Amino acid sequence: MSSAGSKSTATFRRPSYLGVFLTFARNSLVRDMTFRGNFLIECVTSVTWMAMNLGFYLIIFKYTRQIAGWDQYEFFAFLSTTMIVNSLVQSFFMPNCEEVSELIRTGGLDFALLKPIDTQFLISLRKIEWAGLSNFAAGVILLSVSLWQMAARSDTPLILSPQSLVLYGVYVLCGVAIMYSVMISLAATSIWLGQNRSLYDFWFYITNFSRYPMEIYEGPWGRPLRMIFTFVLPILLVVNVPARIIAWPFGDDAQQSTLTWYLAAVTLLATTLSLLASRWLFTRALRGYRSASS
Amino acid sequence: MILRIALQERLVYRGDFALGTLMRFLPIVTQVFLWYAIFETLGNTSIAGYKYEEFVAYYLLTMVARAFSSMPGLSSQIAGQIRSGEIKKFLIQPIDPLGFMLLSRIAHKLAYYSVAAGPFALVFFLCRGYFPGWPDATTWAAFLTSLVLCFLLGYFLEACLGLIGFWLLEVSSLLFVYMLFSFFLSGHMFPIDMLNDAEPWATIVNTLPLQYLAYFPSAVLLGKIQGWELVRGLTLEALWVVFFILLSRLLWLRGTRRYSAYGG
Fold first, then answer.
1. Contact B211, B192 (CB under 8 A)
2. Does the beta-carbon distance from A212 to B34 stay under 8 Å?
3. pLDDT, tens digit, for every residue of B156-192?
4. pLDDT given at position B239
5. ipTM of the prediction
6. How far is B34 from A218, CA to CA, in rounded Å?
7. d(Cα A105, Cα A229) in Å, to the nearest integer?
8. pTM
9. Domain count of chain B?
10. 16-55 in A: which are within 8 Å (CB) of B?
11. Domain hosting residue B149, numbered range
12. A218 contacts chain B (CB < 8 A)
């Protein structure tokens, strides 16, 4: 009896999450490459979109020297961080979270639940939109150019330390994790409500706030907004913290450095909490799930 | 009849709808903060002839213009009907398809305004301090004319894009490109006269009809375009409307001939 039990646990291996993920990635790539023309168009349009955004800020910087304390190239480093974070979220999580309501409507979620693998993992990473990563590349290029320009400028040239690059990477990942938590939470509410037609809209409107330096939220309306989007729904930390780390290195300005340290600590906490909260919300939502056929 | 259906369709979800309209102002909120920050560092000057208040007013007005000129889903609807063959029903019915769809769009828009007027009025009332004051009768009349024209322009332009579906199987990527350009070049993102000394962009945006979809009506109400400029602008806008009406007719005639040639 006991030997049979131990034997069945031995055959029921833990699934290799990495292996499954790589299979997903390969399948999506094969799919994308099947429609190569479409893939190229998607790459070009998403990069064009960012180029136009960049053009908008180029126009603004013709009229002003800085935006809320961010010089042109510092701001472009900020902008490229936005591109990097958003492209990662959009390539890996967006196509999947959008589909959650479809899965519920068609009953496809039943199959996901039956698989011997974590449901959240399966739902979140099934499809990868490789075309979205073109923006990642564009972001990296823009970041390199901005950093280069900042290092070459005559007054207070930027001295980049390897530590800040590593920290930048870590905090970009934190940002992606926070964005993912928001997104999967939105998807989870659609399990409850049975529809999420406006999920994408809502997502767009919320993340719209995260795309600007937090310093612009000033005044009697801006302050509370900044507080809410830093501590309640921490989307302002997503881009701001990595961008501050890379564009305003520690030690240059004592006051800003302390603020960055403080924000960085908050980000770590916020990432953990939002991941946990979204996980909790997701499992709660699944418990309330009734199959479409029942 | 068409009007009544569209009205009822809209009014069923009016609560959700009014909220959705209010949400649409959220992107403007961040834009306003951005411009506020820019003007903070600049001091009390103006950018390309716009003061801070005018920027805020401009963004609010483009929302109005977009409410007239945007035709959500029109092109993809037409293209989809061509692909699925549903377009056949217009070939056997004694009605003009473009006219029919125009009527139903007008109905949709009227229904939309009847509900959206509330949120819009609320936002404009809250932001009344940003407007330079009540415009004179000429400006007001020109503004209303440009809005009507931009509705027609939006409709026929998107109808033309949809009718391209007779030749291309899938127009969605084309539509996306159009959306992308119209977002920037219509003045939705920033007042396009900011580009005025940045050639070749100034020539491009001034030649394209896209500016009439958002920039032109807003600039008119703000009193940026006056006198002969205004007359010229309105005439050009009207000419663009005529152009797209003719183009859509042509595309329809050519398209249906080609379509039946396939025996679809």
1. yes
2. yes
3. 998 898 888 888 767 777 888 888 888 888 888 888 8
4. 92
5. 0.77
6. 10
7. 32
8. 0.81
9. 1
10. 38, 41-42, 45, 48-49, 52, 55
11. 2-261
12. yes
